Amino acid sequence: MKKKIQFFHKTRARVIQRKALKKAQRKTRSKQTSSTGRPKKLGAAEIIYAPLEFSIYELAEGDTQKYSEAIDFIEKIKSIDHSKSYIIDFSNTERVTAAALLLLYATIDQKKVTGPVNSSIVWPHSDSARRVIVKSGLNKLLQNTLNTEEPDFSNTIISGVGNDKVESLIDHIEQSVYKNQMDDEVEYLYGDAISETINNVGRHAYPESNASDKKWWILCDVIGDKLFVLIYDCGIGIPKTVVKRNWFISSVEKFYPEQYAEAKQAPASQSKLYFFGSLKDENLIDLAMKQDVTGTLKSKHGQGSKSIKALVSETHRGKLWIYSNKGLLTFKNVDTPVDLHTLNKGFPGTLVQWNIKIS
User: Compositional bias of type Basic residues: which residue ranges (predicted)?
Assistant: First the structure.
């Protein structure tokens, strides 16, 4: 009888032990997989899944989901400690667009500043999405095979600091895109638009930083008969600098008279604070464009935005996009009012994009 009782207790203990082991295994599997059933890790490397459509343009048409997914994806990559390895999984991504890719490239490039990036790519099954990523040079960036001394124009994305590489870039556009047949007026407008936009990176994006830290990224690509140019910086953003300019109050009075009148009724100590609260980021971007500056302390500094507007206005279905902080401005031509949009998630820095027809 005693042996039977001992056998029963041993059997019961083994059953309990097996149940506990299975429960622990289920918990481990749960930690290793996402709510969609996809694995979170491959060995020690965390897997970060790219969206099905990696794009931020649709927000201008009222679709906030793709924009949110793109920003969340970028933030996940930013949050990973540089000492940890990770895998960027594009396997299910069907579409990759220029602006989102430029943002990703710059994010990874910035992470390399704090230490080596131990990351790799799972390529998309989609041929078109794969081609866009390959052309950007993203894989070269991850593999540390980029030429950092001279711009590699075999890639659609290059980076620079201050005026570094600006002349080389403009020469590349003239030689490779226009085959040295660029009209003098177009060359002037294009050179002014690019150089002024990049110069403003140093003036508005990183006002407290050393010159060597004022980095920008640019993407140039030809699609059909149009040349697309995107310039990005991860600085503090246009809205945060516009309110510090000596022309800010007078510009509000001129272009936003209702808000100005309401602010004038507030106590003097609160009137400027009222301006800050009553104008959204997209309104502040609009003020910067109307003032024909994008952040300089001087009231006028170059005619970069006028040059961009002139190029875009002359292009059928041309468009200018400016993302900064929580605002988006789009411009089509001088006869059409700009469209202003509030971003449902903050944009990290400033991105200016325009396209023109190659004449």
Answer: 20-30
